[in-house]
Design a protein that fits this description.
By secondary structure, this protein is of the alpha+beta class. The protein folds into two domains: about 5-170, Trefoil (Acidic Fibroblast Growth Factor, subunit A) (Trefoil), CATH 2.80.10; about 175-330, Cysteine proteinases (Cathepsin B, Chain A), CATH 3.90.70. It contains six helices and 19 strands. It has helices spanning about 5-10, 190-200, 210-215, 240-245, 260-265, 315-320, and strands at about 15-20, 25-30, 45-50, 60-65, 70-75, 80-85, 100-105, 115, 125, 135-140, 150-155, 165-170, 175, 250, 270-275, 280-295, 295-305, 305-310, 325-330. Strands 13, 14, 15, 16, 17, 18 and 19 form a seven-stranded antiparallel sheet that branches. A hairpin with a 3-residue loop joins β17 (about 295-305) and β18 (about 305-310). The protein is elongated and about 80 Å long. About 45% of the residues are buried. InterPro entries: Peptidase_C70_AvrRpt2. Pfam families: Peptidase_C70. It comes from Phytomonospora endophytica. This is Peptidase C39-like domain-containing protein.
Amino acid sequence: MPLSAADLAMIGDIPITIRSTAFANVYLRLDGSGVTSVTASGGGTVNCQFSAGSPGPYEKFKARKQADGTYALESAAFSGVYLRMDGTGVTSQTSSGGGTVNCQFGVGAYEKFRFSAQTDGSFSVESATFPGVYLRMDGTGVTSSTDAGGGKVNAQYNANGGIHEKFFIAMADQRLDFAEQHQQQTQWCWAATSVSITAFYQPATTWTQCGLVNAEYGLDNCCGAAGAGAACNKPWYPDLALRRMEHLNQYLKRSLTLGEIGVELAKSAPFCVATYWRGGGGHAVVIRGRFVSNGVEYVSVSDPWDGDSDVTYDNFCNRYKDSGTWGNTYTTKA
């Protein structure tokens, strides 16, 4: 799912991809090899790359918001290397575009852009230094991945919303190395999830599910046979459990947008979700990742009862396991 203007403003360090709307599965590619200092004419290579799955490292960028409200596009693969556009002489539309698009070390006037939202969810990318000059991508012939990329990336005049000047911007795939414990009793999803989150941040933790249950209920026998009994085996509040373990960041009585999910994962912060069943009751799970497949956004779910799975964002929000809806969110911190 493409990012919105609001998402773009908040994503920070989350890598993004920039995909042509005109050429299927063709992405903006930046090779910043050798670009280690500022030069008058820039360097490196900016062109196109084909990817039917997850784009490679050269096709990932970070949108760095500048003090003047513009954005600079930093390569995720080449730290400090930015997309550069020189629109000198680009004063009218031509069939093949013009100007120069390449790389620059650091951010100067030629590395600042404005994003113009389009009705189809895409963006046109305008130079802040050359008003009316837009990023142009011609992906003709780019139908498979190659080491050097292909096609042509340059500039076009007065091309806001033009065929070659529109791009879908999406977050690159994200996944955390998170291990969810299986819940040891039928009602201990909250305990399994809380202890698993604690173990993610503190691998040497001594917290156990039954130990947490004892602490939350003020008992001392839930680690034995009594754990399956009614006094121990019952639901509880994930926010209270996570607060006890000092890993609760925020308790939200709502779902998260895709942009918000990306922000949490970019902080290496798995988060707990309370999903509520249509017939009553609920279940605590963890979101450990998100990715795009065939244009559809998925979340990676760690479920203490059913294990790990990948679920479309829409299904997870509205019909997880056929009847679950995303109710509350518990973001976490180290």
